[in-house]
Structure formats: C-alpha cells, structure tokens
C-alpha cells in the first residue's frame, strides 16, 4: 500500500513538471485540426411562393433565371406573372400580373427590364416599380431570353421569328423569319450572342444562323442537328476567341468557326443548355443526364458527373465551385477541378431555372418546379470540435 502511494506521488510530481507542456502541445494539435477541418454548408435563407394563389391545376414550367437589379431579385413564373423581392430579406416589393406567366430569362439595363411572356407579348418594364413602359405583340409564346446591346433588344419568338426592337420605344427595326416543318419540338428557345456586329442564334429546325445585327441579313447558315426527333438548337451559343460552342438537344456539342460557320470538332452528346467557360475547360450539361468537363481545345473529357434522374440546367461558377439545378432533383454544388460533389439542396419537384449567384453575399437564387423562389446560403465553414 505504501509502495502504491509512493508510485502515485512520483507520477503526480512527473506530471506537474512535464504535463503542462504535453497538454499545451495536444491543444495546439487539436486547434490545428479544428482550423483545417471544413465542410460545405448549404442552407435556406428564405423561400417565397411566386404565384399570387396556390396552383391547384396543371403544373406549369418555371425556368426563368432570377434577375438581380440593384437590391431586388426579380422572378417570373409560368402561371401568372413577375414578382420583385428585396434580395436580402425576401420582402415583396411589387407584382405584375401577366396571363400565362413568363418562362424565359430577362435582360436589364439601369431601371429597365426586358422580357418575353407566354401571352404573346414582349415587355419593357420599370424594374423599380413593375410599371409597363411598352409592349410589343409577337402573336406567339416567347420562350427565349432577349439580348440587349447598344439600345437594341434582340429576341427569338416561339414561332421562329427573330426580332430587333428599339429598346426605348419598342419600335420594330427588322425581323428574320424561318420555317420549321418538324412535328416535334423541345419547349424553349436560343438566346442570341453578339460579336463585332454579328448575331449568332439557334433555331428549332437545327440550324445555327449568323445575322447582320444592323439589318438582319444572313451572313451564313449552318444546318447542325438533322435528327428525326428533336432538332432544336435551344442552347445559347457561347463565343470565345473566334469559336462558337453550341449544342443540339438530342444531337451533339459543336465547336464552330465564328467567321465561316465551319464545324471544327464535335462531341457525341446533345444538350439543352449552353456551356460554361472555366479556364481551359467547358462545363457542359448534356440531355442524357450528365455534366461534363471538356477540354476547350478539342472536346476531350476531363471528368463527368452523372445525374440520377432528369437533366441539368446551365452551370454557374460560384466562388470556385460549380452550381446547377436538376430537372427532377436537387441544387448541386461540385468541385470545379474534379467534379466531386460538395453539397446539395432538395426543393421538391426539381429545378429548370439556371441559378443566379450573388458571390458578394454567398447566396444563390433559383425558382423550383413548384414556382417557389429560394435564396440559398452556401459555402465552406469551419467545423468546430469544442
């Protein structure tokens, strides 16, 4: 017993002389682990129902990408119109009723919003108040996002007529009309891209056309998608260093010379949305349920991410990661270099809307298939052990 007590006293004395250093070293290691351990957090900031009333009838398509104008986030739905919310709090600022709603994304400049609607009208709207400045009849649903440049608004109507309007007055400057004899078409439309006075836009008959921006005259016409089922070129062409990247829905991704319309290379996977340029890579959401990272130079695959069900929206770059919605699933965040999943959020009924990112406030906005507008906070956070 005395021997045991003596042994305990020796151990206590040893710890008194050396223990502080040992404990301090251990705490330093735990602190270092605590600082280096991170996880990707995705959480809801707020949710708003964008429809004036609950939709108890036929499910509509909600795919307008939210638009940020000043301190507002403006969102259209496929049922009854457009709503503006204070982007930090989600407080409703104004609401504009439009029969059959709005599907395509919008363009804006200063306090002016330009958007096509499903009631056969194209609108210029005061962004701060929701007051209509002018409207232009297209006599067709409008399913493609407009392009605004130097006081002219360009857009493709649902009947394959491409318009150029004076942005200040809504006066028609010119139009280009194209016949489509196919029986089936994917719901959507190509947004034009403009470079050096030339517009590039896809059509539902599978053609990519280069038009003179001043007159609408055809510069070249390249028939790409010759599929017997869905020939649509609904994806927005992406222009980079003299090359155009554009996809046919159930066809291929093409790299085309902007000057002559010549096909330089192609990838055997169709797509509904445009590619996203990230350094020397193209991030490409395919119509067969993959997100591909491809080498920009030749289309070789770097990595792929397989979606469980449905297709992906256009991919957005967000604080060094990638974010997109799934038509039958989640909002996903991927590592840009490897395609590894970082985090996700499930809103219910999928996402057809390309997310809108606000990197300054670590926030992502999107509308779900149920017409609910989500403000999502996402990013890396430290994981605490204490």
Automatic annotation (TrEMBL):
Q: Where is the Pyrrolo-quinoline quinone repeat domain?
A: 81-305
Q: Which InterPro entries match?
A: PQQ_b-propeller_rpt, PQQ_rpt_dom, Quinoprotein_ADH-like_sf, WD40/YVTN_repeat-like_dom_sf
Record's Pfam families? PQQ_2
- Keywords associated with the record: Signal
Organism superkingdom: Bacteria
Q: For this UniProt entry, which residues form the secretion signal?
A: 1-16
Say if the entry is tagged with keyword Nucleus. no
The answer to whether the entry has keyword Signal is: yes
Q: Which Gene3D superfamilies match?
A: YVTN repeat-like/Quinoprotein amine dehydrogenase (2.130.10.10)
**Stated name of the protein:** Pyrrolo-quinoline quinone repeat domain-containing protein
Q: Which organism is it from?
A: Bdellovibrio bacteriovorus
């Amino acid at each position: 017993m005395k021997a045991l007590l003596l042994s305990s006293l020796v151990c206590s004395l040893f710890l008194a002389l050396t223990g502080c250093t040992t404990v301090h070293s251990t705490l330093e290691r735990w602190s270092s682990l605590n600082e280096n351990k991170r996880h990707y957090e995705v959480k809801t900031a707020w949710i708003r129902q964008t429809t004036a009333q609950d939709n108890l009838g036929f499910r509509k398509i909600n795919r307008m990408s939210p638009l940020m104008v000043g301190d507002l986030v403006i969102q259209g739905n496929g049922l009854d119109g457009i709503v503006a919310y204070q982007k930090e709090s989600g407080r409703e600022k104004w609401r504009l009723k439009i029969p059959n709603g709005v599907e395509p994304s919008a363009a804006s400049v200063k306090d002016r919003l330009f958007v096509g609607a499903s009631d056969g009208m194209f609108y210029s709207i005061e962004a701060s108040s929701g007051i209509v400045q002018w409207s232009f009849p297209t006599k067709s649903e409008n399913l493609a996002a407009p392009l605004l440049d130097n006081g002219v608004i360009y857009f493709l109507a649902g009947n394959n007529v491409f318009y150029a309007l004076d942005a200040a007055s809504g006066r028609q400057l010119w139009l280009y009309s194209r016949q489509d004899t196919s029986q089936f078409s994917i719901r959507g439309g190509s947004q034009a891209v403009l470079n050096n006075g030339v517009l590039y836009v896809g059509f539902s008959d599978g053609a990519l056309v280069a038009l003179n921006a001043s007159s609408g005259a055809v510069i070249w016409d390249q028939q790409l998608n010759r599929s017997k089922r869905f020939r649509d070129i609904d994806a927005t062409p992406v222009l980079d260093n003299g090359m155009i990247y554009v996809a046919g829905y159930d066809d291929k991704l093409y790299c085309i010379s902007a000057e002559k319309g010549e096909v330089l290379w192609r990838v055997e996977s169709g797509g509904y949305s445009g590619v996203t340029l990230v350094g020397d890579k193209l991030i490409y959401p395919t119509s067969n349920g993959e997100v591909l990272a491809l080498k920009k130079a030749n289309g070789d695959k770097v990595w792929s991410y397989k979606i469980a069900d449905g297709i992906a929206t256009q991919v957005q770059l967000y604080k060094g990661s990638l974010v997109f919605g799934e038509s039958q699933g989640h909002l996903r965040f991927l590592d840009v270099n490897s395609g590894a999943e970082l985090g996700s959020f499930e809103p219910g009924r999928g996402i057809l809307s390309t997310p809108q990112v606000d990197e300054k406030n670590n926030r992502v906005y999107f509308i779900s298939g149920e017409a609910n507008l989500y403000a999502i906070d996402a990013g890396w956070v430290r994981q605490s052990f204490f």
